Amino acid sequence: MGLISELLLLPLAPVRGSLWAVEQVLTEAERQYYDPAAVRAELARLEEQLVSGEIDQDTFDRVEDELLDRLEGP
Question: What Pfam families is this protein classified in (predicted)?
Fold first, then answer.
């Protein structure tokens, strides 16, 4: 970009910076959401809940399917 366009777009710099920050947060959140280690840990907790009677088999099956879908990735 030229000097004139930079000067004209200067008032938008905070908006562009905010959008960049939001994109970075979303990227990191998605990375953590699909992280295989985190999903496996959630599967282990889910199984513990089933064994302890905190959840029923239907809930276990539904949540397990959701977690296994996460393991496959986006």
Answer: GvpG
